[in-house]
Amino acid sequence: MSTFQLEIQLVAAVVAAACALPGTFLVLRRMAMMSDAISHAILPGIVVGFFLTGNLSSPLLILGGATAGLLTVVLVEWIRKTNRVREDAAIGLVFSSLFAVGVILIARFARDIHLDTDAVLLGELAFVPFNRLILAGRDLGPQALYATGVVGILSLGFILLFYKELKLATFDSALCATLGFLPGILHYTLMGLISMTAVAAFDAVGSILVVALMVGPPVSAYLITNRFGYMILYSVALAMTASIAGYWIAHLLDASIAGCMAVMVGVQFSVLFCTAPEQGVLAAWKRRRHQKWQFAIKMLVIHLLQHEATPEADRECRMDHLQDHMAWEEAFAEGVVSRAVSQNLLHTVGEYLELTAAGRELAREAIIHT
Amino acid sequence: MEQLLNDYTLRTVTLGTAILGAVSGALGTFAVLRRQSLLGDAISHAALPGIGLAFILTGSKASLVLMVGAGLAGWFATAIVLLITAGTRVKYDSALGLVLSVFFGAGLVVLTYVQRYPNANQAGLDSFLFGQAASLVVADVITMTILGGVALAALLLFWKEFKLLAFDPEFAHSLVLPVRRLDIGLTTLLVVAIVIGLQTVGVVLMSAMIIAPAAAARQWTDHLGIMTLVSMVTGALCGVGGALLSTSISNLPTGPTIVVCATGFVVISMLFAPRRGIIWQRIRRTVQNRELRSESVLLDLFELARTHDDLTYPHMEPALRVIHPQRGTLYRQLRRLQGKGLVQMHQNGAWALTPDGVRVCDQLRKERIG
C-alpha cells in the first residue's frame, strides 16, 4: 500500500467520522433531510467566497459555505413560521433555489476554474493527496485532512462539552427550554457545525456522500442500540468502516470512490436491517412466530384447565377435539401439543391430554392477567 | 417572440420545458399537499442508477428507454423507503436521506462503467446530473408529451379518489376504496412526472419543479382543482420563461434558470397573494387595528354621554384623554370619526356624538354584548 493510498484512506476515515458525529443528532431530531439541503446549499457560499478571495483553498470558502448553510436553516425556519408553506416543502424550495443560484454563478462568471458543479456534487477523493498543505516549506500532508480534521475535532469537542444539554435538547426540547438550556442556540450551533462539516467534506467526497455519511451510519446504529452514547460511537465506527471498505471496493472495481462508499453505507444498513438483534426484520419475524406458538399454548392450557375434572373432560381434553374446538389444523395442533409437552406444561396419555402442575399454574396466571 | 417562432431548436426546448412544467406542476400539487415534497428529491436522485443501467442493458440512449430505467429505479427507491419505515423504527426523513444518497452513490458507480463504454454517445448521460435542455430533440418532446399526457389523464380519471386520498385517507378507507393501491398509483404518477423532467432540469433540481409551482399555487386558492390548474400554468410559465431567458443571456444554464423563476413565483405568491399573502395580511391587520381603535374612542364617548340625559352631550378632550392617554392617536381617531359624520366638535372644542354616531354605538354594543 503506497502512502498515496494510505492518505486517501486516512482522509476518507476522518471525513466519515466528522460527518457521522453531528449526523447522529440530525437522525434523532428527524431532520435528516437538512443534511441534503445544507450540503447542496453551500454551493453559492463557496462560489461567493471564491469570488472574494480568488483562491479555492482559502479558509474563507469554508466560512462562506457555512454561512450559506446557516442561511438555509434560517430561511427554512422562517418560511415554516409564516405558515404559508409546510416544512418539507420549505426545505426543498430553499436548497434547490440556492443550489440553482450557485450553478448559475459558476456558469456565468467562473467557467474556467476547477470549481465545476460536477466536482461539488461528486467530489473526487483520488485527487485529495495532490492538494497539500505546505507550511514554511514543509509538506504536512493533504489539505483536506486538516480541514476535515479540524471540523471533526470541533464537533467532537462540542458534543463532549455539551453532551448532557444536547441529549436533553434532542429528546425533550421543551424540558430543555424550561430548565434554561437554550435549545435554540444549541440547534443553531449544531447546524453551523453541520454546515462547516459539509463544506470541509464536499471537496473530498462531494455533497451526496456527505448526506450518505451523515444519515446512513447513524440510521444503522439506531437499529442496534437504544443508548444515545453508544449510537454516536457505533455510527462513527460504522462510517469509518464503510468509507475504508468503499475505498477498497472502488479500487477493486476501478469505479467511483465516493459512489462505492455510499453503496457500502447502504450495504451496512441492509445487513443490519435484516439481522439487528431487536429492530431487525429477522428478529421481528422470529418474535412474531414465537408469540404465535406461545399464544396457542396458552389457549390450550386454559382450555384444558376449564374442562379438567369435569364430566365432559373425556371428550374435551383429547387431541382430536382440538381441531373442532380451537379450529386448528391438525399439524398446527400437533405442533402446539408437542411444544407444550417439551415445555413440561402437559403430558399425553394416548389421545388424552393432561396438565402438569406447571401447566395449571400458567393457565391460572393467563386467566388472571387477561 | 419572432426568434421563438423561427428557431427550431428553441421551439423544441420551450415546448419541452412547458410540458415538463405543466406535468410536474399538476403532480406536485398532490405531493406538496400530502407532505411528500422531499420524496420527489429522493426519487429524482434515485433515478440515476436506473438511467445508467438502462443504457448498459440496452445500449440505447433513446429517451424512452432511459426514462423507463429512471422510473423503475425511482419507484423501487420509494418502495424501499416504505419498507424501511414500516419495518423498523427509522423515521421517514432518515429513510429518505439514506435511500437518496445510497442510490445516487450506486448511480455514480454505474456511470463510471458507462464512461468506459466505447460507444461514443454515452456522454449524453452526464446531462442527467444537471440537465441539458439544449439536448432536447423532437423525439424527446414527443416522449415527454405522451408520458405526461398519460399521467395527466390518469390523474383526471381518478381525480375524486386521489382527492380523497390527499385530504382524508381514513375516510377513503372507510368507503372501501383501495387506499394502498391508490397511494401506489399516485406515487407512480409522481415518478412519471419526475422522470419526464430529468433530462431537462437534472436530478438535483427536479425536486424544485415538483414543489415550487404547487407551493406558489397553494397561496392563491383553497380549491384543489383551481390549485392544480394554477400550478400547471405556473410550472409551464417557469419552463418557458427559463428556456427563453437562458437563450437570450449567454452562459445561463436552463435548468437552474427555470428553478430560479419558479422560486420567484413562490416568493411573489407568498407576499402578494390575496388573503394568504404576507403583505395582504399586514395591510388587513393595520386596517383592522385602526378600525378597532376608532370604535373604542366612539364607544368611550358614548359611555361618557350615558352619564347625562343627552346621549349627544359634549365632552372636552382632556376627559377623553383620561381613557386614551396617547394624544396623537386620540386626536386622529376623533378626526376620522368626524369625517364619517359620527362625532362633531362644538365651538368650545368639546366633542359630542352625532345622532348617526349614537345609532352606530347602539349597533356596536349589540354586536359585542349580544
Going by CATH, what is the homologous superfamily of the largest domain in chain A?
A: ABC transporter involved in vitamin B12 uptake, BtuC
Mean pLDDT of chain A: 86
Query: How would you name the CATH homologous superfamily of the largest domain in chain B?
Result: ABC transporter involved in vitamin B12 uptake, BtuC
H/E element sequence of chain B:
HHHHHHHHHHHHHHHHEEH
Q: Structural class, judged by helices and strands of chain B?
A: mainly alpha
Spatial extent as radius of gyration of chain A: 30 Å
Give the termini separation of chain A: 65 Å
- Give unreliable regions of chain B as ranges: none
- What fraction of residues of chain A sit in β-strands? under 5%
Kindly name the structural category of chain A: mainly alpha
Overall pLDDT score of chain B: 87
Number of domains of chain A: 2
**CATH architecture level-2 label of the largest domain in chain A:** Orthogonal Bundle
What is the CATH top level name of the largest domain in chain A? Mainly Alpha
Instruction: Classify the beta-strand content of chain B into a percent band.
Output: under 5%
Quote the CATH topology of the largest domain in chain A. ABC transporter involved in vitamin B12 uptake, BtuC
Largest sheet of chain A: 2 strands, antiparallel
In N-to-C order, the SSE pattern of chain A is HHHHHEEHHHHHHHHHHEEH
Q: What is the CATH topology assignment of the largest domain in chain B?
A: ABC transporter involved in vitamin B12 uptake, BtuC
Counting H and I runs of at least 4 residues, what is the number of helices of chain B? 17
> Main interface pair?
A-B, 63 and 61 residues
